[in-house]
Amino acid sequence: MGAGVSNWRLARAVSQLGQLGVVSGTALDVILARRLQDGDEGGHMRAGLDAFPFRAMAERILKRYYIAGGKAAGAAYANLRMHHKDGRREIDELCIAGNFVEVWLAKQGHSHPVGINYLEKIQLPHLPSLYGAMLAGVDYVLMGAGIPLNIPGAMDLLANHEAAEYPLYVNGAEAGEVTVSKFDPRAYIEFELGSLKRPKFLAIIASNTLATTMVKKANGRVDGFVIEGPTAGGHNAPPRGKPPLSESGEPVYGVRDEVDLTKMCAMGLPFWLAGGFGTAEKLKEALALGAAGIQVGTAFAFCRESGLREDYKQRLLADSRAGVAKVFTDPHSSPTGFPFKAAQLAGSNSELKVYEERKRVCDVGHLREIYRTAEGKIDYRCPAEPVATYVAKGGRAEDTEGKKCLCNCLLANIGMEQMRANDYREEGLVTAGDDLAGVARFLPEGAESYGAEDVIRALLEGVAMDETAAEIRDLVAEPELEVAAVATV
User: Fold this and answer.
1) Residue 421 domain-assigned (yes or no)
2) Cβ count within 10 A of residue 35
């Protein structure tokens, strides 16, 4: 559900209740740095860094970013160096530590599995991020928004602290040109370590073709799939073909975009269904169709434990109660080119006026595109950066139309908005699935909020384990994980 919404608190709450809690792995380097600059209320980041195996690295991070009592109100966060294909030690260390801390905190107080979710299109941080999560003993890695063929093999290498490479998509690359990012754990470890646990890998897919491709061509073991439909929040897979947009300007999905679950069952790997499955009835349906369970995001995004800032949470819950909550699938806003679902919320970047008043700036850079210059060099650009800058880098002005800086928006969603000159404050852009309209059903009578426990209790109401479920449990090969697994992404 963006960055930091499915945080360690939410994932831990879900896992403590016997399901699979999943933290968002997006921008955990930036999030760690900003939590420390905010004073680390409760001391959780420092506790995670105390448990981090590399003491010198932890001390460097604390010295550089921790501000006792927090930065001054209205002061800007320190800008970090952006990721680079050749790696940059300062940001790579933050990646390793940020992913470690988030997973380590999510795993405290229980013995159930914890997962982490990444977007394949955010390629540059993959290797240090995976290594940090694996240092913390992450049990599952989930990845969508691209074709993650090279993640399983990278995890195999990182589990033994071996150097890994990740091939990067470069816009304009010539035939035969290959560009990779490289990461060698031994350049960062401070003492010899035994082998790490290799997490199970679940690919997030939206087609049978991609599932087959993952099984046949991935460079390591694929352990299962999350099948995500177009009603799920965040980035959606674009519809197949080039159908016209709807009257409201949204992508139109059809029969070609449906996944044949009979074929998925025949593959012999467990799968979870996502997008519109956040009810007990849909969970029962999923199990009957052969799924191992469901993935739920939107219902958890608005519970007490999520990282979504409280004012946004309460206003959208009020809209849901009033029956006026709306989500728009925007085909243009994401710099990645994927459709992006945005809750319609006054004062946020879902409003055209707010978007148009924002001065374009790219200072986080996770969604930048890698491209080949006319001189044959590698450089970076983002269609949400200033138009003149993007065009000067060889981009087309028309590709900037409607593009929004999701990096800054998603950080603003969790109360880490950047401050600009003249007291300008970045506004958010809340992503949610179509189920936003019904999330108020999880509110206990007379209550203004609900917890992860309320969601899980409602989802599991009347769900019984039968022989089919027992067979699925054997396939999953994770005895402590309930079959009706609920992943928060």
Assistant:
1) yes
2) 25
Q: How far is CA 294 from the centre of its chain?
A: 17
CATH number of the domain residue 199 falls in: 3.20.20.70
Can you tell me the distance from the alpha carbon of 243 to that of 43, in angstroms, rounded to the nearest whole number? 51
Q: Which residues contact 324 (CB under 8 A, 6 or more apart)?
A: none
pLDDT greater than 70 at residue 476: no
Domain membership flag for residue 1: no
Dist CA 293 CA 265 (whole Å): 13
Are the beta carbons of 487 and 226 closer than 8 angstroms? yes
Question: What is the Cα–Cα distance from 161 to 185, expressed in whole angstroms?
Answer: 5
Compute how many other C-beta atoms are within 10 angstroms of the C-beta atom of residue 32. Answer: 25
Tens digit of each residue's pLDDT (9 = 90 or more) over 202-250: 999 989 999 999 999 999 999 999 998 877 778 888 888 888 888 888 8
Helix, strand, coil in percent for the chain, rounding step 5: 35, 15, 50
Reduced to 3 states (helix: H, G, I; strand: E, B; else coil), residue 303 is: coil
> Which pair of tokens denotes residue 61?
């991070």
pTM: 0.91
CB-count burial class (<10 Å; 0-12, 13-18, 19+) for 438: middle
Beta-strand ranges (E) seen in 229-300 are 271-274, 293-295
**Is residue 3 a part of any domain in this protein?**
no
Q: Encoding tokens for residue 272?
A: 């979870």
In a domain, 66, yes or no: yes
Token digits for 357?
A: 């008043």
Q: Quote the number of domains for the chain.
A: 1
Cα separation, 269 vs 109, whole angstroms: 30
Contact 106, 21 (CB under 8 A): yes
| Rounded distance between C-alpha atoms, residue 196 and residue 133, angstroms | 10
Whole domain around residue 349: which residue ranges?
8-487
Q: Which residues are CB-neighbours of 62 under 8 A, at least 6 positions away?
A: 36, 46, 49
Contact 137, 171 (CB under 8 A): no
Residue-wise DSSP of 151-209: HHHHHHHHTTT--EEEE---BTPPTT---EEEE-GGGT-SS--PPPPPPEEEEEESSHH
- Total count of residues recorded for the chain: 489
